[in-house]
Amino acid sequence: MSPVTDNYLKVGIVGLGTIGSTLAQHLHDGIDGLSLSSVAVGDPNKNYPILKTLKVIPKIVNLEEISGISDVVVECAPSAIFDKIAVPAIDAGLIFIPASVGALLDRPYLIDKARSSGAKIVVPTGALLGLDAVRAASEGNIHSVQMITRKPPAGLKGAPYLEGKNINLDQLTEPLMLYSGPAREAVQGFPANVNVAAALSLAGIGPDKTDMEIWADPEITRNTHDIIVESDSANLTMRIENIPSKQNKRTGRITALSILATLRGLTATLKVGT
What we know:
The chain is of the alpha/beta class. It has two domains: 9-124 and 254-267, 3-Layer(aba) Sandwich (Rossmann fold); 131-251, Dihydrodipicolinate Reductase, domain 2, CATH 3.30.360.10. 29% of the residues lie in helices and 24% in strands. Helix 1 packs across helix 9 (253-267), helix 4 runs parallel beside helix 5 (109-117) and helix 7 (183-189) packs antiparallel against helix 8 (195-203). The longest helix is centred in the last third of the chain and has 15 residues, at 253-267. It is globular.
C-alpha cells in the first residue's frame, strides 16, 4: 500500500456498492498520487463486505462531511441523492467524478457552478468505447449519432419507463425493443441502465439529437452497445459487449475499471487519450 503524503489527492467515495467497493479496494492497494481518505454510505452501521478486507479502514462519514475532507469526490450512489453529493463537491471547488452520468443532463446549472467555484466535473467513459473519437469528431461537424443497447432482460428490471406497460421481462423468448427515441428520455426512463447514453451525448451532439434504442434480449448474456456516428471527419461503427457484474446485473464490470482509469489519469505522468 502506497504511503500517503501531503502531495496526494484525497479521494472520497460515496457508496460502497459494486462500483464503490472496487474503487475502494484499488485505492487501498495503492495508486500513485491518490489516497482513499473517506467513504460516505447510506447506513454507517451496516456491515459492508469490502471494509472487512481492507487493512486500513477509511474514515466513514456522512454526505455533509465528505466534501470538506476530500480533493476528489467519486459518486457511486443511487441517482436519487445525486444533488446531495454533487452540489457540495462542486461548490467546494473539488474534482467531481459521477457514476450517475445521466443525472447531469437535466442539471446544466452544475456546469455554471463549477465554472464559478473552480471545480472540475470529470465524466468517466464507463461501459462504453470510442468517446475519444466522438469528442474529436465533435471539434468538426457530427451529422448523426445512434446508439443501440441490448441487455439480458434481468438487467432491465425495475426501470421507471416500464411501469404500467404490462411487459413481463421474465417471459421473453425473443428480443423486444423497449424504447426508441432521444437519449435524454432514455436516461430518464432507464436511469440505472444507460448512463453510457448520457456520456455519449455529452461527448457528441447532445442528448436531444442522439438517437437511442433499448432492447431486452433473452438470447444474450452480455450488455451490448452498438454506436454509429457519421461526421465530416470520420464515420464510426463500434460495438462493446460488457460482462455484467456478479453483484449487480445492471452494471458492467468495466464500469468500475473505467472510473479507476479516470482516477489514475488525474495524477499520471503519461496520460493516453484526450
